[in-house]
Each structure stands twice: as structure tokens, then as C-alpha cells.
Amino acid sequence: MECIITKNKAICTCTYEPCPRKGRCCECLHYHRRNGELPACYFSKEAEKTYNRSIEFFIEDYNSRR
């Protein structure tokens, strides 16, 4: 299956504008996984804006929404 970057960008929740992986979901996932993180699309809108992509922060964010 071919990656359609323009379609992905339309649904991407990452607000980090200089990100070279925006719309390239596979690259984004691999990048964050390699760094022990999760991509922006896993976080709430408020938490995403902190740019803290740690798994620990994701758990805090997730639990605060329950």
C-alpha cells in the first residue's frame, strides 16, 4: 500500500511544524519508537502541545482522560 502524504497530513495531530516526518506515519512511528516515545497522535490535544512524547507522559495523559 502506498503512503499518501497529503491524506496523512490532513489527519495528523502533530503541531510541531518543522517536523520532517509530518504525513509520513511509518517514519514517524519508527522515529519515536527508536527514541522510546510515542507519536503525537497518541496524546490528547492539550498534552500534544507540550511536545513531551514519553511513554510515561502518555500514561499520565491517558489516565487523566478516564
Report on this model:
The chain is globular and about 35 Å long. It has one domain. The protein has 66 residues and is mainly alpha-helical. It has helices at residues 5-11, 25-34, 45-48, 55-64. It comes from Fervidicola ferrireducens.
Helix content: 40-55%
Mean pLDDT: 95
For the secondary structure, the number of strands is 0
Beta-strand content: under 5%
Low-confidence stretches: none
Q: What is the general shape? A: globular
Oligomer: single chain
Protein name: Cytosolic protein
Organism: Fervidicola ferrireducens
Pfam family, one: DUF6485
How would you summarize this macromolecular structure in one to three sentences?
Helix content is 47%, strand content 0%. It contains four helices and no strands.
Key descriptive features of the protein:
4 helices, Cytosolic protein, globular, 66 residues, mainly alpha
Write the SSE topology.
Layout: H1 5-11, H2 25-34, H3 45-48, H4 55-64
Protein name: Cytosolic protein
Organism: Fervidicola ferrireducens
